[in-house]
Automatic annotation (TrEMBL):
Enzyme class: isomerase
Protein name in UniProt: DNA helicase RecQ
Enzyme Commission code(s) on record: 5.6.2.4
Key words of the record: ATP-binding, DNA damage, DNA recombination, DNA repair, DNA-binding, Helicase, Hydrolase, Isomerase, Metal-binding, Nucleotide-binding, Zinc
Top-rank lineage group of the source organism: Bacteria
Cofactor requirement: Zn(2+); Mg(2+)
Gene Ontology MF terms in the entry: helicase activity
Listed transmembrane segments: none
Entire-sequence positions represented here: 1 to 410 of 586
Gene transcribed to yield this protein: recQ
C-alpha cells in the first residue's frame, strides 16, 4: 500500500505542509507522469523527488551537475534517514554503492551526467529497480540557458530506454525559450510543465529612468534606513559610489571581485552583521549570502536580464517584512546591451535577443511590474499587484515608455 504522502512528509522530513506546488509535482510523479517543475531557489525542489523516493519502491536516480551539490544533498538526505548515496569520481566506495543499488537498498542515488550517459551505467540500471529519474538543474540541457552542459544532451537516450520510469526535471532558471527546450530535450509533454512560487509579495518594485543617479540613490537611501544593496555595473563604480555615500555618514562598504579576498570577506561579514549598512557591489555580491533583513536592493543601471533582476532583487525582504527594489536605467545601458549582442554567436543570439527584449518590456511597461515579472517566469498573475510603482501611482512620465521603446528598436 502506498503510504499517505502527508504523513510521510511529516514523519520523514518533519514538515507540517507542502509548500506551493510541491504537492502538485509529487502527485504527478506518484502517478508515473513526466514533469518539469520550475520553482525559484529555496522553494523546495529537492523534496519533490525525495518524498517519492521514500514512498516508491526502488531507487530514484538523481542527475546533478556538481559533485559538491550532490554531497550537500547526500548529507541532508542521510540526516533525515533516507537511504542515499552518490556515485561520482570523488567516491571511493563505488563498488559498495553499486551493490546496495542492485540489492534495492537505496532510496536515492546521485550521479553526474557524464556517468549517467555511459553505456555500462545503462546496464547497471537494467539490473536494479529505478523508481524515478530526477534531473536537477535541468536548464543545463538547453543551449538557450546560461549553463549549457553537453553531457545533459546524452541523458535522453538513457531516459528513453526506461520509458515506464517517470521523469522529473527541476530548475529555478527558465525563461520561455529554455523551458520549451527542456521539454523537448527531455521528452516531457507540455501539460507536464508546472511553474510557480516566484511571487515575492512583500517586495515593492519601482523602475525609473536615470537622471542624476548619485542623487537618485542618495534620495532612496534617505527613505530607506535599513540594510540594503546597491548594484553598480563596474568595479570602479562601486568604490566611487561607496565613497560618496560614506561622505553622508551612512555606514557603507564596497564589494567586487577585484578586491582582496580578506577585504571581500570582511566587508561581507560587516554587512551581514549590520542593521543599517549599504553594500555597494557588482553582481559578484549576493550568491549564498543569508541576510534575511535586507530592506532594499537598488540597481544603478540596467541588470543583465530579467532573471538576473529577479535573483538580485530577491535578496531583499527574505524575512517577509516590507522591502523595496528600485532600478534606475538609462539609454546608455540599452546601447551597451545591444553592443554586446553584436558579439554573441548565432546559436545564442535569438535567446540573448529575447532576454534583452524582455528586459525592455519590464522597464517600459505602464502596467504592473510584478505581472510582467511573473508572466516572464510562466505564471498567470492578476493584472495589478498594488505594490509596484505603476500600480501605486499611474506613471506620469510617458517619456520613460517612449524612451525605452526608442532605445530598444534603434
Ligand atoms: P531548491 O532546490 O528549490 O532551491 P531546496 O530543496 O534546497 O530548495 O529546499 C530549500 C529549503 O526548504 C530546505 O531547507 C528544505 O528543507 C526546505 N523545505 C522544503 N520543503 C519544505 C516544506 N514543505 N516545508 C518546510 N520547509 C521545506
Ligand atoms: Mg536544489
Amino acid at each position: 500500500m502506498v503510504p499517505d504522502l502527508h504523513d510521510l512528509l511529516h514523519s520523514t522530513f518533519g514538515f507540517s505542509d507542502f509548500r506551493g506546488v510541491q504537492r502538485a509535482v509529487v502527485d504527478r510523479v506518484m502517478a508515473g507522469e513526466r514533469t518539469l517543475a520550475v520553482m525559484p531557489t529555496g522553494a523546495g525542489k529537492s523534496l519533490c523527488y525525495q518524498l517519492p523516493s521514500v514512498a516508491l519502491e526502488g531507487t530514484c536516480v538523481v542527475i546533478s551537475p556538481l559533485i559538491a551539490l550532490m554531497h550537500d544533498q547526500l548529507r541532508a538526505a542521510t540526516a533525515v534517514g533516507i537511504r542515499a548515496a552518490t556515485l561520482t569520481s570523488a567516491d571511493d566506495n563505488r563498488a559498495e554503492t553499486i551493490e546496495r543499488f542492485k540489492a534495492g537498498e537505496l532510496d536515492l542515488l546521485y550521479v553526474a551526467p557524464e556517468r549517467a550517459s555511459a553505456g555500462h551505467f545503462r546496464e547497471l540500471l537494467a539490473r536494479a529497480k529505478v523508481s524515478l529519474f530526477a534531473i536537477d538543474e535541468a536548464h543545463c540541457v538547453s543551449e538557450w540557458g546560461h549553463d549549457f552542459r553537453p553531457d545533459y544532451r546524452l541523458l535522453r537516450p538513457l531516459l528513453d530506454s526506461f520509458p515506464d520510469v517517470p521523469r522529473l526535471a527541476l530548475t529555478a532558471t527558465a525563461d520561455a525559450h529554455t523551458r520549451d527546450d527542456i521539454l523537448v530535450q527531455l521528452g516531457i509533454p507540455r501539460e507536464g510543465l508546472i511553474v510557480a512560487g516566484f511571487d515575492r509579495p512583500n517586495i515593492r518594485y519601482a523602475i525609473s529612468p536615470k537622471a542624476n543617479t548619485t542623487q537618485q540613490i542618495a534620495d532612496l537611501l534617505r527613505e530607506q534606513p535599513g540594510p540594503g544593496i546597491v548594484y553598480v555595473q563596474s568595479r570602479a563604480g562601486t568604490e566611487k559610489l561607496a565613497a560618496q555615500i560614506a561622505a553622508t555618514g551612512r555606514p557603507v562598504r564596497a564589494y567586487h571581485a577585484g578586491l582582496e579576498p580578506q577585504i571581500r570577506a570582511a566587508n561581507q561579514a560587516a554587512f551581514v552583521a549590520s542593521e543599517d549598512m549599504v553594500m555597494v557591489a557588482t553582481v559578484a555580491f549576493g550568491m549564498g549570502i543569508d541576510k534575511p533583513d535586507v530592506r532594499f536592493v537598488a540597481h544603478a543601471g540596467l541588470p543583465k536580464s530579467v532573471e538576473a533582476y529577479y535573483q538580485e532583487t530577491g535578496r531583499a525582504g527574505r524575512d517577509g517584512e516590507p522591502a523595496v527594489a528600485h532600478m534606475f536605467w538609462g539609454a546608455d545601458d540599452f546601447a551597451k546591451a545591444r553592443q554586446r549582442l553584436s558579439e554573441v554567436d548565432d546559436v545564442r543570439l535569438p535567446g540573448e535577443r529575447a532576454r534583452l527584449t524582455a528586459l525592455g518590456g519590464l522597464v517600459e511597461t505602464a502596467g504592473c511590474r510584478r505581472a510582467v515579472l511573473l508572466r516572464y517566469f510562466g505564471e498567470h498573475p492578476p493584472e495589478t499587484c498594488g505594490n509596484c510603482d505603476n500600480c501605486l501611482d499611474a506613471p506620469q512620465s510617458v517619456d520613460a515608455t517612449e524612451l525605452a521603446r526608442k532605445y530598444l528598436s534603434a
